[in-house]
Amino acid sequence: MITVTIEPDGLPFEAPQANTVLQLLNRMGLRSSRTLVIRDNRLLTPDQRLQHGDAVTLRKVGSKG
Amino acid sequence: MKCSRCREPAVVALPSHHAGFCAPCFDIFALRQVERAIKKHSLLSPDDRILVALSGGKDSLALMHILHRLGYTATGLHLDLGIDDSSEFARASVEAFCARHGFPLIVHEFAAQGIAIPLVRRAIKRPVCAVCGKLKRHSFNRLAREHGFTVLATGHNLDDEVGRLFANVLRWDRAYLADQGPLLPAEDGFVRKIKPLYRLTEFELANYCFLQGIEHHMRGCPFSKGASFSTHKELWEELESHSPGQKLNFYETFLKTGRPVFENLEQQEGASLSPCDVCGSPTSAEVCSVCRITAQVRGQARQ
Known about the structure:
The complex is a heterodimer of chains A (65) and B (303).
Chain A: E1 2-7, E2 13-15, H1 21-28, E3 35-39, E4 42-43, E5 55-60
Parallel strand pairs in A: 1-5
Antiparallel strand pairs in A: 1-2, 3-4, 3-5
Chain B: E1 12-14, E2 19-21, H1 23-40, E3 50-53, H2 58-69, E4 74-80, H3 87-101, E5 105-109, H4 117-123, H5 128-146, E6 151-153, H6 158-171, H7 174-179, E7 183-184, E8 192-194, H8 202-212, H9 228-242, H10 246-269, E9 274-275, E10 282-283, H11 289-302
Parallel strand pairs in B: 3-4, 3-6, 4-5, 6-8
Antiparallel strand pairs in B: 1-2, 7-8, 9-10
Helix pairs in contact in B: 1-8, 2-8, 4-11, 6-9, 6-10
């Protein structure tokens, strides 16, 4: 399981295991070109592998007026 | 993924540039995009007095940060729109950012003029986003002139510009197509307006803020739900995912081949401007739309 927080305003939740960042984004319905993926205060690229127990923040970047 | 420049592990993937970058190389990339925009369109000169519109979001804070890193001296201007549960956070974000970096800041409150946006929203019969934008642009220009600035810089990014261009094309709005671009020269009572971030996407600017430790306001405006610009941006994201680089190409090609055509047409047939009878700002009517809206809002508030 991976702990995911979607910003802004999201609460942490448990997401099913995904092998890569891109796989996780696809499952969340998010685009890699519109989302920062952060683990341990570091940015991840879509090809990077995720591990069981990872805590990941998905920060949506679209302006909202 | 390896960094396209130095082969270290990448932290940012940019399909539109067929590249990935490590943090130091991404920083070089971002600064170069802004330098290139400034140079290509002669946006700034060393003796300019620059006012930067600061909303508290990532784009405007990144713009202020980058301009200072490129050696320009700029003052921030924040418009407090008076929207409950929103404006106070945006203002706090701007004030903390400027205090942290020692940037000069001017704060202007709409409520002090009797035009807090919730009052405007109640008084008008059309979507508030367009009117809010009009009031902001009017205030930016008036305050820039009153404080003696030669140029107003805004944090519009590539997604903003492509979204707006797309909307203008859908309406074939000749007047807007004639003056859309990273540079609007000073004329007829308007200070020069520039958009030095137009070559960077929202995603790239969000990465810049993260890597520079810039804390920005992330909450959306409570009044902008369902605004058409969000839909246009989504459509373009879909196009970009199928054909990376299309956004920048669409916009740059418009600047090169499309805009001159509309500029010529407007010069021949466009409306001429004269000072507003009330505030003196340039307008094609006797009283500008901002003064008409302000009178309407104040009248409604007195009832």
